[in-house]
Amino acid sequence: MPTDPHREIERKFLVRRLPDALENYPHAEISQGYLALGPDGVQVRLSKNGSEHSLTYERGTGNVREEREVELTPEQFATLWPGTAGKQLTKRRYKIPLGSRVVEIDVYRGRHEGLVVAEVEFEDEQSARDFVPPDWLGEDVTGDPRYSNQLLAQGAAV
Amino acid sequence: MPTDPHREIERKFLVRRLPDALENYPHAEISQGYLALGPDGVQVRLSKNGSEHSLTYERGTGNVREEREVELTPEQFATLWPGTAGKQLTKRRYKIPLGSRVVEIDVYRGRHEGLVVAEVEFEDEQSARDFVPPDWLGEDVTGDPRYSNQLLAQGAAV
Fold first, then answer.
1. CB atoms < 10 A from the CB of B46, how many?
2. What gap in Å lies between CA A76 and CA A14, rounded to an integer?
3. How far apart are CA A158 and CA A70, in angstroms?
4. For A44, which residue in chain B has the nearest alpha carbon?
5. Between chain A and chain B, how many beta carbons pairs sit less than 8 Å apart?
6. Distance between CA atoms of B88 and A62, rounded to whole angstroms?
7. In this predicted structure, what is the pLDDT of residue A1?
8. E strand or H helix at A137
9. Which residues from A are below 8 Å from B38, CB to CB?
10. d(Cα A16, Cα A2) in Å, to the nearest integer?
11. Mean pLDDT in chain B?
12. A65 interface with B at CB cutoff 8 Å
C-alpha cells in the first residue's frame, strides 16, 4: 500500500499493438474537462466515467503527483461542466489485466481520434522502475507533456 | 433578474466606519481556500460558511465574472481542503441591510487581521454604476487586485 493515499505513481506508454478482441475487455466512455490548469502542475478536472461523475485536484508533475478526488452527483457535475468549455476531451478506456496489474488503454475520440495511450499504476516507485512492459506496449512517455491530458484537452496536436 | 444566472456584478469598497452594534447583524465565520488560481482570472475556491460547504468556479476579472457554485458535503470538502494549503484565509462576514440591498462586510482574521472590505451585489451593470454608497463606506476598490481574495489568500500584505 502507498504510504500516502493521495500520491499516485504511474507510467505511461504508447501502444505498439492493441490487444486482440479489445471490445471484450471492460471499457467505458470517459469525458474529461479542466476547470483550471495552473502553474506547478495544478489542475482541477471534471470526469464522467460511464455513469460516475467526479472532481479531481492534482498537483505536481512526472510520475509522482498529489491527487484528491471526490465523487460528484450528476447535478453538481452538470453545474460545473460548462466551465470547462474549450478544455474537454473524450476517450474510451479499456482495462486489460496484466499479471497482478491492470493496463488502462485510452483510445481518444473527437479531435484526437487515432491517439492511443496506456497507463499502469504502481504501489511504489521501486515497482514502477522494475516494471518490464509487455512487447505490445511501445515508447515510455511518462511525464512527456505532449501526452498529458491537460495539453490534449487544450487542443494541442500530438 | 440577470440574463445569465452565472454572471455576478458587484462593487467592493473599503470601510470608513463600521456600523454600530455590528455583532447584532447576521454574521458567520468563513474559511476560503484556493485549489487553483490560473491565468484569465480562473479560480477554483472551497468555502466553509458557517455549516455550509461549497466549491466555486470563477473566471474573468473586474465587476463582471462568470461564477458556478455547487454545495459540497462535509466529506467532499474535507477530502479537497488540504489541497488549498498555503492559499487559505478566514474572515467573519456581516450582512448589513441597506434599502433593498445587502452590504456584506468582511472582517479578515489571521494574518490579515485589521483588513475590512465591503461588497454590494447588483442585478445589472446600470444599477452598479448608479449606486451611491453610504458615507460609512470608503474608497471604491472594485477590481483592485490588492483586495482580491485570491491575492490575500496567497499572503500578500495590503
1. 23
2. 34
3. 30
4. B36
5. 66
6. 26
7. 37
8. strand A137-140
9. 36-39, 42
10. 30
11. 89
12. no
* Amino acid of residue B68: R
Q: At a CB cut-off of 8 Å and minimum separation 6, what does B39 contact?
A: A38
Which amino acid type is present at position B132? V
Q: Which of A53, A56, A51, A54 is nearest to A28 (CA)?
A: A51
Q: How far apart are CA B29 and CA A146, in angstroms?
A: 44
Looking at residues A3-9, what average pLDDT do you find? 62
pLDDT number for residue B1: 37
B147 among known catalytic residues: no
The span from the CA of A140 to the CA of A13, in Å, is: 4
Give the pLDDT score at A75. 98
Grid cell, residue A49, equals 466515467
Kindly tell me the burial class for residue B53, based on how many C-beta atoms sit within 10 Å of its own C-beta (0-12, 13-18, 19 or more): buried
* Interface contact flag, B80 A66, Cβ < 8 Å: no
C-alpha cell at B152: 490575500
What DSSP string describes B83-119? GGTTSEEEEEEEEEEETTEEEEEEEE-GGGTT-EEEE
C-alpha cell of residue A61: 508533475
Q: Which residues of A are catalytic?
A: 34
Pairwise pLDDT comparison (B37 vs B8), residue with the higher score = B37
Contact A10, A119 (CB under 8 A): yes
Please tell me whether the interface predicted TM-score (ipTM) of this complex is above 0.90.
no
User: b vs e for A87-100, b when ≥16 Cβ sit within 10 Å of the residue's Cβ?
Assistant: bbbbbbbbebebee
Cell of B34: 484556493
In the three-class reduction of DSSP (H, G, I as helix; E, B as strand; rest coil), residue A36 is classed as strand
**In this complex, is the C-beta atom of B32 within 8 Å of any C-beta atom belonging to chain A?**
no
